[in-house]
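sry for the spam today, last one i promise. struct tokens for design, 825 residues
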């Protein structure tokens, strides 16, 4: 049994066994990352040059404290997303405290860039001292020698790194230690730290509920500078019914009760209300709110829930004043409860009404590049400024047919004055800039012998929003076109500059393909159809459970694509871990029947960080590749220390192997498949690699690998000859491009429903229901096949159609197909 799987079994058992006092999310996630990545921490101190705290930078700033925890698994990725102007404190998590008072450092410490940037912006950097063991905590609190060792070590680290205070995160302590004992300890610690570092701050994390009335919150607030209230973990793996992790109202225990009853005796100016930037996912017995939980599927960060809210819609539970969404897959119901900007704002208002010192969050960067929560902070605590716009969502780029131009699309964002596009042929230095007040943005005068890279951001009078992931495009110029889908959203415990498309596009170009590209959200939200292109290269890096390799909507898109003859190259190190080891029954079915693999282990032979090469298996399309090396973290991408070991199933074949590992019994690095998928009749193709393509090095090796994949995708088989019936398993129509400028190509697939001749009429209507164009297909079209035609944007009366949405309707055999297209003049 691999270490990750053992961890989740142990944690699930622990949480279900506890009747009321459950481990907090701080402890659960700390233990998860410790179990998976091991004790990476060092106790050694290496003094650094620190920029002094610039207190004047906050002189005219926030009207309340904003205290954010930054876990080490979110550093350094968080540096691209933190709004230092909207924070007063950053608590570095975690400095683990041993039973003897020793203190180890967070992973990657020292965080010099974070400390200096925070100080330049007047933000205090806090040491978070962590322990979750009752016996160890008891020793620290009650043993004079251990206690003094701990206090001295805190002082030493504050001195070495220029830190501005200490936060005590001691959880799971004995009830007898939760009252006078912890209060006396905090008073001694506070006096000692204040004496050594005037102006420093000492705080402690307090529970949302005083379960056994052991805590003296009034005395605790008097013994230190303030208490951070952990206002979350009301739901979790222990929940019998689905619900919010931080209900504002409802039931007898909720956040309002925490503020107005549990902490009513404490000084409000010594209280910070912490809110969750995460929530919970459940498989439930029904679709209604608070349904019986059949399986708890773990925590979900807000950055992962954003696409779910956009795709499935936001439901509002009036009982708890909480948002959630649901979806059904294979007759099973799933519910995801994650706070959004509306519910977070309501909790901030509760803290404001009760005159709290401020608010805080677990945890920074759980919202990724979204500005939703930053805007809530700004509205509450920074007067006058316009909120920043969000990162452009569902971005993609496609060439304009028969021209030297390309369109860059994304969904429009609130609070936007305009959009900025940085672009060029060198992905490391995008030197050209275009701005526009609307989307799409047009790139002109492109050359067919170049690949163009770009990033998109929205801006307004307050500043710039976050950049999108990098996109890439080249002109077709009579080449087949490959679609690259960037599905690598993960930011924690990895290195993801969001530009790995620059390792895919040149390899495809060298294989003779033109490229277009999209974020996975563009596929998930049905902005772009994969079907028209020669094949799709979908990369996932080491995307894992917290950011979801394939959501249910992405799975649906991939299923449809493959059933209708699509060709897919997918690579990622944690796909099997996410979909099988941590997945639902639907996830496991998708992995087996569409990705054609059996998940064997989370690393070859279960050994993390030992295998960094693979080779093609003889008598397969990959047998001439030789040995391919992939990154251990020192070759420009990220450390692939956990590449899944997988084995071919469901008619697929093993294609890539790890050195000296038996593929048949212990799993390999890649599988391939030719045939039909999921009951479809059109032949599709698949290459599924458990090593991220972008980590293969050098570039020449990536080129060689992509050329091999491309040859496999192109190779004709008996069923692919031109004289085969061009039928598909599902009637459908798609268009390219969509949206379009002046003309669009339409492809219609009809299955042979009854074999009888029947008129087939294609019509296009405007949004008022007026027919603007029609096209009649021959009577035998209804017998099945593929039919291609083009609309040049001209109406029935010979005029140019205007910009807007149009409806394509196909009528045949008493049936209708409907498809939306968008023209942008």
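last one done:
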């Amino acid at each position: 049994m691999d270490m990750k799987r053992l961890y989740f079994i142990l944690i699930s058992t622990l949480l279900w066994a506890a009747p009321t006092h459950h481990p907090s999310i701080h402890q659960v996630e700390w233990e998860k990352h410790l179990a998976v990545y091991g004790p990476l921490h060092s106790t050694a101190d290496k003094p650094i040059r620190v920029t002094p705290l610039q207190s004047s930078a906050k002189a005219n700033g926030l009207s309340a404290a904003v205290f954010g925890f930054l876990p080490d698994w979110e550093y350094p990725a968080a540096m691209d997303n933190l709004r230092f102007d909207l924070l007063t404190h950053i608590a570095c998590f975690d400095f683990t405290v041993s039973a003897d008072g020793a203190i180890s450092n967070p992973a990657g410490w020292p965080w010099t860039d974070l400390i200096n940037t925070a100080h330049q912006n007047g933000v205090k950097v806090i040491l978070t001292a962590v322990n979750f063991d009752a016996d160890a905590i008891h020793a620290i609190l009650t043993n004079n020698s251990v206690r003094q060792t701990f206090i001295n070590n805190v002082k030493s680290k504050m001195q070495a790194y220029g830190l501005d205070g200490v936060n005590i995160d001691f959880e799971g302590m004995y009830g007898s230690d939760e009252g006078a004992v912890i209060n006396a300890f905090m008073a001694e610690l506070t006096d000692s730290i204040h004496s050594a570092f005037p102006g420093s701050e000492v705080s402690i994390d307090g529970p949302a509920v005083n379960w056994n009335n052991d805590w003296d919150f009034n005395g605790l607030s008097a013994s230190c500078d303030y208490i951070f209230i952990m206002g979350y973990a009301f739901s979790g793996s222990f929940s019998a019914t689905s619900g919010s992790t931080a209900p504002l109202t409802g039931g007898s225990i909720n956040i309002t009760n925490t503020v107005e009853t549990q902490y009513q005796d404490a000084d409000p100016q010594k209280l910070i209300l912490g809110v969750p930037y995460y929530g919970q996912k459940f498989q439930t017995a029904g679709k209604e709110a608070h349904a019986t939980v059949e399986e708890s599927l773990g925590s979900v960060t807000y950055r992962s829930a954003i696409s779910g809210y956009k795709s499935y819609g936001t439901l509002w539970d009036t009982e708890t004043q909480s948002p959630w969404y649901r979806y059904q897959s294979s007759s099973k119901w799933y519910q995801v409860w994650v706070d959004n900007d509306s519910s977070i704002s309501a909790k901030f208002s509760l803290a404001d009404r009760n005159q709290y010192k401020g608010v805080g969050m677990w945890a920074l960067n759980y919202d990724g590049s979204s500005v939703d929560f930053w805007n809530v902070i700004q509205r509450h605590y920074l007067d006058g400024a316009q909120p920043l716009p969000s990162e452009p969502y569902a971005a993609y780029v496609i060439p304009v047919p028969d021209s030297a131009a390309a369109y860059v699309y994304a969904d429009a964002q609130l609070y936007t004055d305009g959009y900025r596009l940085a672009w060029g042929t060198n992905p490391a230095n995008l030197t050209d800039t275009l701005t526009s007040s609307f989307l799409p943005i047009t790139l002109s005068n492109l050359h067919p012998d170049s690949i163009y890279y770009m990033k998109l951001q929205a801006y307004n009078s307050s500043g710039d929003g976050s950049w999108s992931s990098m996109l890439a495009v080249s002109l077709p110029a009579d080449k087949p076109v490959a679609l690259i889908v960037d599905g690598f959203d993960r930011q924690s415990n990895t290195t993801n500059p969001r530009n790995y498309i620059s390792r895919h596009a040149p390899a495809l170009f060298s294989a003779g393909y033109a490229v277009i590209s999209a974020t996975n959200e563009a596929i998930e939200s049905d902005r772009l159809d994969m079907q028209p292109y020669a094949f799709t290269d979908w990369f996932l890096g080491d995307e894992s459970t917290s950011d979801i390799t394939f959501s249910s909507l992405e799975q649906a898109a991939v299923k449809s694509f493959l059933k209708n003859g699509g060709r897919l190259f997918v690579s990622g190190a944690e796909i099997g871990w996410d979909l099988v080891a941590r997945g639902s029954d639907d996830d496991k079915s998708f992995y087996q029947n569409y990705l054609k693999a059996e998940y064997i282990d989370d690393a070859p032979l279960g050994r993390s960080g030992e295998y960094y090469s693979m080779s093609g298996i003889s008598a397969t399309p990959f047998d001439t590749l030789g040995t391919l090396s992939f990154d251990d973290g020192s070759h420009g991408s990220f450390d692939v220390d956990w590449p899944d070991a997988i084995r071919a199933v469901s008619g697929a074949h093993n294609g890539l192997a790890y050195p000296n590992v038996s593929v048949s019994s212990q799993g390999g690095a890649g599988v391939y498949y030719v045939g039909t998928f999921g009951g479809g009749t059109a032949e599709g193709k698949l290459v599924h690699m458990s090593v991220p393509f972008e980590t293969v090095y050098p570039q020449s090796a990536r080129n060689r690998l992509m050329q091999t994949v491309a040859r496999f995708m192109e190779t004709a088989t008996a069923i692919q000859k031109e004289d085969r019936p061009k039928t598909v398993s599902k009637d459908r129509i798609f268009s390219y491009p969509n949206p379009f400028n002046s003309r669009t190509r339409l492809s219609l697939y009809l299955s042979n429903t009854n074999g009888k001749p029947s008129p087939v009429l294609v019509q296009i209507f405007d949004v008022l229901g007026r027919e603007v164009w029609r096209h009649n297909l021959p009577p035998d079209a209804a017998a099945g096949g593929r039919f291609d035609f083009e609309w040049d944007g001209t109406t029935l009366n010979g005029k140019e159609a205007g910009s807007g949405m149009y409806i394509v309707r196909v009528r045949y055999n008493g049936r209708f197909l409907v498809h939306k297209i968008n023209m942008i003049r």
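The chain has four domains: 3-381, 386-469, 479-720, 732-823. ok im logging off now
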